[in-house]
Fold:
Amino acid sequence: VDAPCSGEGMFHKEPSLIKSYLNKGPKEYAKLQKEIISAAAKMLKPGGMMLYSTCTFSPLEDEETISYLLTEFPEISLVSIKMEEGFKEGLAPFKSCVRLYPHQIEGEGHFVALLQKKPVSDPPFMMKELHTNGTRRKNASLQIPKTVLNELYYFCKDLLNQKLSDSLHSENLFMKEQMIYLLPEESSPVPGIRYLRTGLLVGEIGKNHKFFPSQAFAMTLSQNDYRYVFDLKLDDPAVIKYLKGESIQLPDSYAKIKEPILITVDGYSLGWGLSNHGLLKNKYAKGWRMQ
Structure:
């Protein structure tokens, strides 16, 4: 990530940057850097590494941006960089970062931080895939893409409360086609029997192995179970609009949320939605919508 920055290191080479610095300054760039590095962190493969660099000496854009990232993404950590001639440690407590000053190296001056996302070699749960007749396929769990397991793992870890997340990290998760189900403890499908419903449908895997929670799963949740909740009052006209499958207006605080949003009415769950430029993209089950 070669982040846009206020660029003090380039002032003598590009004097025009001084005007940009005066107009925007470190605060404006720091805000942009947090957005960029957060997007990069979400795309980073488990076990993958990312190098963040700027050509500024501003702690607000350097160490404080790294501090923000490590707080928001605890699965990411700093990796020590081998110190070479002219390298200086980052400001405490981020001494694993490197500062390069123009009077000590051949260059304009830079800040560098090497980061790594925690590898997920063995997901904390395994799923077993079912035939359509309910029989379990031998070693089927090995045939489920690891990306699917990782996607569900991070959904549980990032969006569900700890107790509920732990309940999904079990051998009672099954995958039938692209649907993921949760069975009661000490329960498993009986071979040879076709099922109308196999436990609770937690969600399904869509394009690019992206997990999306189901309507049935939404109905089991309370406000305290999920991270992103948009609660409506019973007499709010938006309730009927949502039940009809229409888009509804979202507060500005929801604008940058990329994950599913749980819609509730006076604390009771209705279903899901996605933030889309200030509007809620309605994901209420189509068969349930009011006419």
The longest strand covers residues 268-276. The chain is about 25% helix and 25% strand. The chain has a mean pLDDT of 83. The CA atoms of residues 249 and 289 lie 18 Å apart.
